[in-house]
Model the fold of this input.
Amino acid sequence: MTISPTFRYGVGHVTFQKGESVMKKVLTMKQIEKQFSGEWVLLVNPEQGKQSEIVYGELVFRSKDRGEVYREALKRKDDHTAVLYVGKLPQDLVAVL
Done:
């Protein structure tokens, strides 16, 4: 028997203002995608699935400005974080690997 993240961690719906540092709230990626499409999010202690995809994490910051999210990540100095863009990537985005 497995315990879902929703039950185990009390995952729920949250709303935040742009660029707002928030109290930690564990959300699944489906919830994050539904609520924060078109934004960058900072997750602390992200949990990965079998194929290394992020399944859920503690949402601590979000913004449409990627730079704001990275600055918050550097300021917080958490051990395990993920910065993600939620939704379809903009046409003018350039990725360097």
In short: The radius of gyration is 13 Å.
